[in-house]
What does this fold into?
Amino acid sequence: MTEPKPVPEAEPEPEPVPEPVPEPKSVPEAEPVPEPPAADPGHHVRSRLMRESLLDRQVERSTEGPVHRMLPEAHVLKIGGRSILDAGREVVFPVVGALAECLRRWKLILGTGGGVRTRHVFSIGLDLGLPTGVLAQLAQADALGNAHILGTLLAPHGVVAIPPEIFGHLLPLFLHAAPGVVFSSVPPYSLWEHPPGLGRIPPHRTDAGAFLLAECFGCKSLTLVKDVDGLYDADPKRHGAASFIREISVAELRRRGLATLPFEPVLLDLLANARLLDRFQIVNGLHPERIAAALAGEHVGTLVHRDG
It folds into this structure.
């Protein structure tokens, strides 16, 4: 009798191998933003004002510094329109003769006012309710007409009248080639003229235009040629006892609050903030010899100077 075969023992089941626990992923540190290369002018503009607000007072103060004078030997003269050019040959020819003599010694930039024609245009425009900017634009034509008149009379002495469109760009070139130039002294605010504090007459007229030109180009002096000896404490044409003011500062003139001035009041604001021009003189063109004296540095009218 055969013996039964032994039943093989069941092999033990293999123990499950535990799955490897994944290691937590490390978050990579943010890489620093690289600085733009120092020598890369084609892609990055480096400027001390590029990250600043131009409305910040500290930033505004930081911009103070020396200002370059473009025409330091040139003199600016504003020839009155109503007071001189509208007065006819008896007044104009002696002034032209005096200017011709001055052109032999100095480089002159001669600005002109619009005179009675501008006042007439203002009257019509105000009656029609035209805004201040339109009045400023209309005034340019009258002053330009007087510039052509003065330029024609001084043409034999090498003086040229420059149109407003090219005046600022070519002034140094013309002044280098000629002894003097004539320009319309109306500043080109045109439709962008500032609203006046009182009334509607443009505040920046031909006196202001001559001042701004002298300040921008760093000219040696500014002389306003009028038909009065200078500044008085009242209108000398209406008040015979008015007292002459030989010299005065901006602050003192503001404090006195005179009822009338022989120049545009906005000049006080311009002079107070100017960087290069620190004074101007008012002289009487009815005494033409005073023009040369003023250019030579003599005190022959009223000096209005900056404070300090």
